[in-house]
Automatic annotation (TrEMBL):
It is an enzyme of class 3 (hydrolase). Belongs to the XseB family. This is Exodeoxyribonuclease 7 small subunit. NCBIfam families: PRK00977.1-1, PRK00977.1-4, xseB. It catalyses: Exonucleolytic cleavage in either 5'- to 3'- or 3'- to 5'-direction to yield nucleoside 5'-phosphates. InterPro entries: Exonuc_VII_S, Exonuc_VII_ssu_sf. Pfam families: Exonuc_VII_S. The keyword Nuclease applies. Residues 36-66 form a coiled coil. The gene is xseB. It is found in: Cytoplasm. Keywords: Coiled coil, Cytoplasm, Exonuclease, Hydrolase, Nuclease. Gene3D superfamilies: Exonuclease VII, small subunit.
């Protein structure tokens, strides 16, 4: 299965791929070498996800610092 470079996929895609890898590893049906490759891919995806979440948290902190007095409210959308 070909995979995009880690920086080319969004958080949701990386998470879906990670879930697939976990399922395959949990099945216990992979040969050792393939299981190791999948595990390595999973570690990379998990690290990428952690980095993306940290970046999002930093962006939120910056936005809140710019307007610390802004009230927080649920997003209503444009429906």
């Amino acid at each position: 299965m070909a995979r995009k470079a880690a920086n080319d996929i969004d958080f949701e895609t990386a998470l879906a791929q990670l879930e697939t890898i976990v399922s395959r590893l949990e099945s216990g049906e992979l040969p050792l070498e393939e299981a190791l490759k999948e595990f390595e891919n999973g570690i990379q995806l998990a690290q990428q996800g952690r980095e993306r979440l940290q970046q999002a948290e930093q962006r939120i902190q910056v936005l809140l610092q710019k307007n610390a007095d802004a009230p927080l409210a649920d997003y209503q959308g444009n429906s």
